[in-house]
Amino acid sequence: MLNAQERAQVAQVWDLIAGHEAPFGAELLLRLFTVYPSTKTYFKHLGVFPDEVHLLSHGKRLLEAVGVAVLHMDNLRWALSPLADLHAHVLRVDPSNFPLLIQCFQVVLASHLQGEYTVEMQAAWDKFLTGVAVVLTEKYR
User: Fold this and answer.
1) pTM value?
2) Which end of the chain is more exposed for a tag (fewer CB within 10 A), N or C?
3) Is the Cα dihedral 125, 14, 41, 34 positive or negative?
4) Is the dihedral angle over the CA atoms 124, 128, 129, 133 positive or is it negative?
5) φ, ψ for residue 81 (rounded to 5)?
6) Domains of the chain
7) Beta carbons of 22 and 60 less than 8 angstroms apart
8) CB within 8 A of 25, min separation 6: which ones?
């Protein structure tokens, strides 16, 4: 999936955001809900105006899952299988939401990392996150 240079770029970006999963994840979710309001249907428990505590909590879980994927780039299917089962069989999340999430995540990364987030890093992260989305949607078949 990723060549050695792309893997290094994904790891380099993750090193910049590791430890800040909650605020990055909360901003990602807030951006997702704002730009694509239909995605909020899966988060009715957050209310009309999600409070910061809930956004930080779920955002942290979301980015912790990304961290697991970063650590297991060689075996995403194994690493993300429980998460894929949850989203496909229990939560029944529309898989068309994953590309929207990826898009919002890229914007959050670019806005925070600015000059440190090169075009090459963006391309590597796009490829990586697309691979994550593919694994998460495989259980829908």
Assistant:
1) 0.88
2) C
3) negative
4) positive
5) -55, -45
6) 4-140 (1.10.490.10)
7) yes
8) 55, 56, 58, 59, 60, 61, 62, 63
Q: Which residue has the tokens 């209310």?
A: 47
- The amino acid present at 127, given as its one-letter code, is K
Length in residues, the chain: 141
**Residue 45: which residues within 8 A CB-CB, separation 6 or more?**
54
Are 59 and 22 contacting, i.e. CB atoms less than 8 angstroms apart? yes
Q: Cα(97)–Cα(91) distance, rounded to whole angstroms?
A: 13
Question: Which residue type sits at 44?
Answer: K
